[in-house]
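F.,

This is the one I mentioned.
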């Protein structure tokens, strides 16, 4: 296989994964948009967490809400729980790495807030722990996963929203995660700005 063919195969596989995700994810993404927009309109906040590339996605999403996405609007309350190295390292050192997001949700989460829990595999222990605390505090969970949803998919409640990419390859899941996040940003803006119902 030539390098050019490898590149073309990457594009084709990404396109096919996005087509499959369109049919299974469009309705839950709409539900997540509505939940987040309602939370923000009521004075709540969206917290986001994940590891590695999912940590970067958490920060990207929070920045798009807090600053702006594609249109001018008032800042929206969002925070990535992945950015404060003093907090993260003190919790990991004093307790356990599994608690780095959970303790922040316990401190910052309020009933009516939303937690965006991102895990490519659906099996990240620290994201799972954050979901447990979110449930205890009345924080609604939007889980962004792949690979069937893993343990996170199984721990979600009926009022939570599961955005599960129908794929097993990490790169493809992450590519759809970014598209889903942009759909969330666009949809939230549309509702907040009164451009869509």
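My design for it:
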């Amino acid at each position: 296989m030539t390098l050019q063919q490898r590149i073309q195969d990457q594009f084709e596989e990404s396109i096919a994964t996005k087509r499959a995700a369109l049919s299974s994810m469009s309705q839950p993404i709409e539900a997540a948009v509505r939940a987040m927009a309602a939370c923000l309109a009521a004075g709540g906040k969206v917290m986001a967490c994940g590891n590695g590339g999912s940590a970067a996605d958490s920060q990207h999403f929070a920045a798009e809400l807090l600053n702006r996405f594609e249109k001018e609007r008032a800042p929206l309350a969002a925070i990535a729980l992945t950015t404060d190295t003093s907090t993260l390292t003190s919790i990991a050192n004093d307790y356990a790495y599994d608690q780095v997001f959970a303790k922040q949700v316990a401190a910052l989460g309020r009933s009516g807030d939303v937690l965006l829990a991102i895990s490519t595999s659906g099996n990240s222990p620290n994201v799972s722990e954050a979901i447990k605390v979110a449930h205890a505090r009345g924080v609604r969970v939007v889980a962004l996963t792949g690979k069937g949803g893993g343990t996170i998919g199984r721990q979600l409640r009926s009022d939570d929203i599961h955005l599960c990419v129908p794929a097993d390859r990490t790169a493809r899941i992450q590519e759809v995660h970014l598209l889903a996040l942009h759909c969330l940003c666009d949809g939230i803006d549309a509702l907040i700005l009164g451009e869509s119902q």
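The mean pLDDT is 97.

Talk soon.
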